[in-house]
Amino acid sequence: MWRSIARSLLPLMESNGVPEINKALLRFLYAIYNPALRMREGVSRITVSPAEWGRLVAYRGKRAMLLCNHPTWHDPPVVFGLSRLLGDPFYFAAMEELFEGIVGEVVRRIGVFPIKRGKPDRKALKICQSILTDHNGKLVLFPEGEAHERNDVRLPISEGGDGAAQIGFWAATALMERGDGADISMPIIVLSVFYALQSDPAPALHKGIARVEKILGLAHEESPLESRFARAERLALNGVEHRLGLDVRNDVNDNERLTRLRERIEEKVCVTLNAPLPLAKDSHLRIRSLYSLIQDIRNVPVAGMSERDRRIHEALLQEAQLCYKDIERVQRWVVAGLDAPGEGSSAERLAERLRRLEAEVLGQVRTHFTYEAIIRVAEPFDLCEMLPLYKTARREAIRQATVRTEALFDGFLHEWRDRKQKYLT
């Protein structure tokens, strides 16, 4: 019902597949943004240094690709807030699952469009190019591909045919071939979002880990938080292995345990859904393929099915939903990894680890913190300057652009790690 109401009140307009931004809806969301961000995402404010803010202001009203890290699910709403501050709407590519129900109807009307995870999506890629070439818009991509719940690491960036650099080169080439005297720059602006706790998290961390320990049957110990988290994480992982029929082996290192866990869940999902195992090498890319597999099942039209086929499909959907939870478990444990005992975790890292433990052990996140979102903005670079190389050696041009992007991400990441962190005991 609500979806039908949204469609009638907010008709969706498109140009070359690009969703037209509903200005009235955008103004409304801008008006409620600050309290909504705090209540839904736990982010109290967004901070950008004056010098780095100037890098964005210089491109107000101009085309650009904004490439952002993706440590949490909060990142898209935070970057949306950046567009609000700039007064310049952004376009976002987002996972297909977001477009189910009324949420999907709303976000389509503020410049968000779906993209398939784990496989080429020609329609979405054409939309990306049109945003840059026909609309002179700002396109936001998260090249890590998946949220990984670790603000102190970076996932590898794809250099494939649907990678961010390739999209930028396609747009730059189209602009160059147009040759109408228009601006043919194709700026890449790398953003990194970091989340700093706004109050002393120690009481909430102690209370949260005590709750997890109680459910796991662990006796309370007057030991450092780091030790208590490591003990709880490994016991929780034992439970996951047991449920999946894996022998619990504490004699192997953490990486081996996580690899066995990933392989077992991948096998279970693919056997259940009668699909081949993912071919990608990196864990997060394999996860994207599995998510895409489940979304394909959800997208099968049921209109015209016989009653028998409909029941079979409904049963498959139920199996797919259970598989989805298993894939989330891979994302929760394997992609984020386990912290080595004794290496020391910042307050922010302990908050991330508690969120993962609560999701696994309690079935939901119970402890919530308030953060400041610190956004770093790199000096833009122009892909058009690399077009001569792209015309003669495409793979090398894409590789160089990707390496340059990763270097900017890594520079911000090193500064974040080296800041004065608060370690808790």
Helix content: 40-55%
What is the H/E string? HEEHEHEHEHEHEHEHHHHHHEEHH
Number of helices: 15
Structural class: alpha/beta
Biggest sheet features: 8 strands, mixed
**Form type:** globular
Mean pLDDT: 88
**How many β strands by DSSP?**
10
Q: Runs with pLDDT <50, length 5+? A: none
User: For the terminal residues, how far apart are their CA atoms?
Assistant: 51 Å
Percent of residues in beta strands: 5-15%
Radius of gyration: 23 Å
Descriptive key words:
15 helices; 10 strands; alpha/beta; single chain; 53% helix; 8-stranded mixed sheet; 425 residues; 11% strand
Verbal overview:
With 425 residues, the protein is α/β, with parallel strands linked by helices. The chain has 15 helices and 10 strands. Helix 5 (102-107) links the parallel strand 5 and strand 6. The radius of gyration is 23 Å and the shape is globular.
